[in-house]
Every structure is written in structure tokens, then in C-alpha cells.
Amino acid sequence: MKIRVSLFLVIGCLAAFHTRATVTSEKELRDGVQFAVGGGTLRIQFWSPEIVRVTYAKTPEIPALESLSVVGKPEKTRFKLQKKNDADTLVTPNLKVRIDKQTDVVSLLDPAGNVLLQESPNGRKIEPAEVTGHAVSSCAQAFEMGADEGIYGLGQHQHDVWNY
Fold first, then answer.
1. pTM greater than 0.85 (yes/no)
2. Rounded-to-integer distance, Cα 58 and Cα 9, Å
């Protein structure tokens, strides 16, 4: 029994690792780049030289949904696409957005190349779920955080601690 469970766990871990998306192609857009990844589509869209919108869907195209909260429109922003074997990087004068071609992890960097924000490996998830008998999608996003970085504004916690 222990051998079967161990083998199942090894196969499950390998399957989870193997299903992690890799960048298979990219398509330049007027305001960014859309990447085909093993699990769907990742779009990097510049709204200005220092503002980027990252969108992911488990479909071949990003659905055209109108936001109820975002009322602005993207500015025309000049960017360069730098392609290397391990990563593609979109560069404006104020921001770099790097997509790792093996893991499809997105990193936001300052002009000097210092990481501002980076997704955790396997940190992007969209899975089917059910809520009150209705089929919905459960979405999660995780980011890497430095040991000296604080998290503020989590008003739902009532423990008299500001930095989580």
C-alpha cells in the first residue's frame, strides 16, 4: 500500500510540474504582446510607460469584457520586445515586463532591472468550482515577496497588527 501511495504521489507531482505552462508563441499587439502559454493566453498591455495590465485566460483568446471599475483607456505607449532564449522582455523607458519562457512567470522590473513584483511559480490558477449550485471559476494569484517587504491595508484583520 505504501508503495502505491508513494508512486501515486510521485506521478502526481510530475504531472503537476509537467502541466505548468510554457510560452509557445507570441503575437505583437498595438499596445502590448499576447503570449500563447500551455494553459491559455497571457496578455501584457501597456496603459502608459509606467502602467501595465496583465491578463490571463484559459482560452485561446482573452475575452472582450468591459470593466465596471476601470474607466480609463490605454495611452499610446512605445515599447520594445527583447527576445532571448529564456525570456521575453517588454521595455518602456520606465518599466520592464519579463515573461519566463519555461514557467510563464511574469516579473515587473524597474529600468535598472531590479524586481518590483514577481509572480510565484505556479502562482496563477483558474479552476472550476461550484457556488450555491452554480458552476463558476475559482481564481487565485500569488506573488513572491521580499523578507523586508510589508503588507498593509488588510482591514479585515482585527489583531492590532498593521504589517502582515
1. no
2. 26
Selection from 47, 92, 49, 90 nearest residue 70 by Cα = 47
Write phi, then psi, for 58 (nearest 5 degrees): -85, 40
Please tell me the predicted confidence (pLDDT) of residue 123.
87
Q: What is the DSSP string of 99-161?
A: EETTT--EEEE-TTS-EEEEEEEEEEEEEEEEETTEEEEEEEEEEE--TT------TT--SS-
Q: How far is CA 157 from the centre of its chain?
A: 26
Question: pLDDT tens across 63-104, in order?
Answer: 888 888 888 888 999 999 999 999 999 999 999 999 999 999
Tens digit of pLDDT for each residue in 99-115? 999 999 999 999 999 99
* SS3 state of residue 61: coil
